[in-house]
Amino acid sequence: MTEGRHGRFHKQSLFYGLGETGQKRLEKGKVLIIGCGGLGTPVINLLVRAGVGFLRVVDQDVVEMSNLHRQILYFPEDVEEETLKVDAVKKYVHRLDGQIRIEAVNQRCTGENILELMEGIDLVIDCTDNFPTRYIINDGAFKKKIPWIYGGAVENHGNIKTFFPDGGPCLRCMMMHPLEKNETQRADTHGVLNTITGMIATYQVSEAIKYLSGNREKILKDMIHINLWENDYETISLPKNEECPCCVKEYYEFL
Ligand SMILES: [Zn+2]
Q1: What distances in angstroms separate CA 148 from CA 57, 151, 169, 234, one per listed residue?
Q2: Which end of the chain is less enclosed by CB atoms within 10 A, N or C?
Q3: How remote is the CA of residue 189 from the centroid of ligand 1, in Å?
């Protein structure tokens, strides 16, 4: 019989890539999740079930009916009661695993609070839906020397890339300035399939598990682009910009 805490993660620690040692490391992991929407909710669900020990979750919205098709931690009563997303997340996580420590922050992530949000954190997962916030995350993560995992999904396609602060490249190497809201596709205007948010989130958590369990060398260095509707999968290599203000010159203008 495999009961209790050991039993909960038994099938995971049997996996050769983790083992008991990797599982123990995961349980010590401290992760910051920015955004509790289409990416954030499946990311949180999988991290908690994998046994990651501490989560700090950040969001400022309340649950809406149009969230339910893809934001998998919420229920119709959360919509009726206009529950804050971070409160609904906390309730769900406590029900699922009372030993996971979770800190719910009902704030928007800004250049002013990002360093404080990253305090004591091992890894940041970007689950936002806009580029301006990602540039704040990029600057904060490089300044604090914490890796972060970019994820984005809309319509039928999505991207993921892990950025390591020890050397780059970073998000600004890829694109010097953030695209404005009207320059990008958004779920509000273009819609989004729940399978693409689920898939990008799953990929993000998979990379997170590798990092937190001490298997950094397994993390893909390139960016992955997936289009589920057209069955198109590609990896895109991002060269470092030797003039990059962030990862080369250490000038963090979004903070
Ligand atoms: Zn850079």
Answers
A1: 14, 10, 12, 21
A2: N
A3: 30
Cα-to-centroid distance, 246 and ligand 1 (Å): 5
Distance CA 245, CA 249 (A): 5
- pLDDT surpasses 80 at 43: yes
Surrounding ion ligand 1 within 5 Å at CB are: 168, 170, 172-173, 244, 246-247
- Taking the centre of ligand 1 as the mean of its atom positions, its distance from the CA of residue 173, in whole angstroms, is 4
CATH, range 13-236: 3.40.50.720
Instruction: Go through the chain and tell me how many residues it has.
Output: 255
- Give the pLDDT confidence of 169-202 residue by residue, as tens digits: 999 999 988 887 778 888 888 899 999 999 999 9
6 or 89, which is more confident: 89
- CB-based contacts of 157, cutoff 8 Å, min separation 6: 196, 225, 226, 227, 228, 229, 230, 232
Sequence spans of domains, the chain = 13-236
Q: Residues 6 or more apart from 231 whose CB is under 8 A from it?
A: none
State the SS3 of 107-143.
Answer: CCCCCCCHHHHCCCCCEEEECCCCHHHHHHHHHHHHH
